[in-house]
């Protein structure tokens, strides 16, 4: 199996790479390990001191849990693997507080953190609207967790699609029409002939607009590869994509060693 990097957008925290000579099963295993096993920080417990807003405590807690927090994996342990054995200590928990009064919209930026490395990824996530005289005050506990327990701990959006195999067996009468039909710009004309643009082919998402255009005359074939895949990883912001990948490989190794131990 070969893995090649396609692009890495540091600002958008998005990474794409190409898996060649692999299988859908293996690629999906990688996707599931990232979703289920790469840990991130999220709010797990909330203790309300005051809440006179229109939302119930439970509703606000749910909203708080879904706020992505920047994660420092070196400083925190998973509660289960911590030396405190899950009782809660500075190595596996972080307290976040909020104290505010209306009238205003409470945003994620109003949350105060004791660790500058762990804070909401985005400042403008609305939590609740407070009217004149309404108050909100709470202490929240953030912990490391994994996506297999709750989706709030998933590190991002991960998906893959087959690499397209495009064959032009017969030149169409009007090649420009095919070029124009593709919303991803996969085709181009070179020396009056319709060809596939090698740099753009990766963008093909099998919309088959080109096939519709060429339907009457035939000659174009678009097939998904069974061995080559485009893998797309977009972080929610808690971790950098490359750290997500590194941790996924570590988690994979750990699973295989566990299996090896069981066999012994
Ligand atoms: Zn601990």
Plain-language structure description:
The protein is of the alpha+beta class and 264 residues long. The chain folds into 2 domains: 2-36 and 156-233, RNA polymerase, RBP11-like subunit (Gyrase A, domain 2, 2-Layer Sandwich), CATH 3.30.1360; 41-152, Beta Complex (RNA Polymerase Alpha Subunit, Chain A, domain 2), CATH 2.170.120. The protein has 5 helices and 12 strands. The strands form 4 sheets. A 4-stranded antiparallel beta sheet has the order 1-2-12-9. A 4-stranded antiparallel beta sheet has the order 3-8-4-6, covered by helices on one side. A hairpin with a 4-residue loop joins strand 1 and strand 2 (14-20). The two termini are 28 Å apart. Bound molecules: zinc ion. Zinc ion is lined by residues 82, 84, 88-89, 91-92.
Quick overview of this protein structure:
By secondary structure, this protein is an alpha+beta fold.
Record keyword descriptors for this entry.
264 residues; alpha+beta; Gyrase A, domain 2; RNA Polymerase Alpha Subunit, Chain A, domain 2; 4-stranded antiparallel beta sheet; 5 helices; 22% helix; flat; binds zinc ion
């Amino acid at each position: 199996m070969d893995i090649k990097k396609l692009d890495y957008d540091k600002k958008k925290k998005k990474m794409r790479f190409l898996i060649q000579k692999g299988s859908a099963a293996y690629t999906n295993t990688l996707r599931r390990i990232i979703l289920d096993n790469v840990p991130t920080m999220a709010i797990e417990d909330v203790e309300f001191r005051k809440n006179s807003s229109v939302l119930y405590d439970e509703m606000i807690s749910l909203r708080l849990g879904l706020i992505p927090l920047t994660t420092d994996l070196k400083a925190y342990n998973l509660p289960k693997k911590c030396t405190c054995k899950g009782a809660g200590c500075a190595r596996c928990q972080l307290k976040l507080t909020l104290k505010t009064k209306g009238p205003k919209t409470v945003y994620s930026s109003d949350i105060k953190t004791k660790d500058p490395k762990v804070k909401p990824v985005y400042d403008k996530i609305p939590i609740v609207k407070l009217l004149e005289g309404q108050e909100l005050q709470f202490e929240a506990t953030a912990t490391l967790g994994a996506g297999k327990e709750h989706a709030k701990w998933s590190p991002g959006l991960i998906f893959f699609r087959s690499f397209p195999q495009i064959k032009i067996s017969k030149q169409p009468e009007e090649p420009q029409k095919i070029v124009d039909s593709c919303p991803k710009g996969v085709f181009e004309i070179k020396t009056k002939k319709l060809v596939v643009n090698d740099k753009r082919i990766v963008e093909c998402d099998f919309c088959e607009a080109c096939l519709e255009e060429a339907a009457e005359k035939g000659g174009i074939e678009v097939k998904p590869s069974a061995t080559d895949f485009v893998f797309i990883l977009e972080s929610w912001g808690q971790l950098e994509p490359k750290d997500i990948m590194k941790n996924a490989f570590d988690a994979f190794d750990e699973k295989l060693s566990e299996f090896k131990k069981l066999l012994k």
